[in-house]
Each structure stands twice: as structure tokens, then as C-alpha cells.
Write a structure and sequence with these properties.
140 residues, two-stranded antiparallel ribbon, single chain, 5 helices, mainly alpha
Length: 140
């Protein structure tokens, strides 16, 4: 389904498919919602999450709370743990935010394929178009 902004809205089936693919064993971010819990949500809650994502898409909005990360520092193996440079940071983000990012990525990929198709159909009239394709097409 599309709207006035020509943005493809999400569906509970799309969100459910994304949730099915996430790793249940990954750590929880600042929102405290584990992936294991997301995999067990009932259909009515899945519909509510879809509505939130669609409102965000319509308003070109990414909630600031989904941008906050908990940063954990892990020591590099075999290094002196007294030196700060011998640690590597791991950022734990909101699991809902990660799902929403995948929804956005799907729209960007779709848009890039449409754009690529348009450019390819006009290739004969614009020989430098191939340069633009490499900048605008996302890897699959």
C-alpha cells in the first residue's frame, strides 16, 4: 500500500518476516526488548508495531530513542588491559530500531532498482549514466 508521499507502507507480514530472521541470542539494547520476546509477540501487538513504523515512514521520522546505543568495551585478546586503546567498543542498539532500519532499507533498495531501471532505459541517450548507477544502487 502506498500513500500521498508515494512511500510503500509496511504490513504485519513484512514485520513478521523480518522478526523471524533476527537472531534470538543477540544482546538487548537500551529499550530492553529482547529479540526472543519479539519473536513471541501476538498478532495484535505486531499490528501495533506496524502502525508505529508506518507513521514513522509517513512523517520521515526515526525516533531518537532508537538511535541511542549502550556502548560496551571489551578487551582485545593478548593486549595490556591497562591501556584504553586495547579495548574494542560494541554498540547495542534498540532491537525495534533495527527492525525499522530493515524496513527502510527495503524501501531504499526498491527505489534504487526503479532508478536503475530508469537509467538503463535511457542509457543510449546519456552515455555517462553508468557512472551515476554505481553511486545510486545499493548492493544486494
Amino acid at each position: 500500500m502506498r500513500n500521498d508521499n508515494n512511500i510503500k507502507l509496511s504490513s504485519p507480514l513484512e514485520i513478521q518476516a523480518i522478526i523471524k530472521k533476527i537472531n534470538s541470542k543477540k544482546a538487548t539494547g537500551p529499550d530492553g526488548i529482547p529479540n526472543k520476546a519479539l519473536k513471541m509477540i501476538p498478532p495484535n501487538l505486531l499490528t501495533c508495531i506496524t502502525k508505529v513504523f508506518n507513521k514513522c515512514l509517513l512523517h520521515h521520522y526515526f525516533p531518537p530513542s532508537w538511535k541511542i546505543a549502550h556502548v560496551l568495551m571489551f578487551p582485545k585478546p593478548g593486549q595490556n588491559h591497562k591501556l584504553p586503546g586495547n579495548y574494542r567498543p560494541i554498540s547495542l542498539l534498540s532491537n525495534l530500531g533495527k527492525i525499522y532500519e530493515k524496513v527502510i532499507l527495503a524501501r531504499l533498495k526498491e527505489h534504487s532498482l526503479i532508478y536503475k531501471s530508469f537509467l538503463m532505459s535511457n542509457m543510449a541517450s546519456a552515455p555517462t549514466t553508468a557512472v551515476y548507477i554505481s553511486f545510486f544502487v545499493l548492493p544486494t
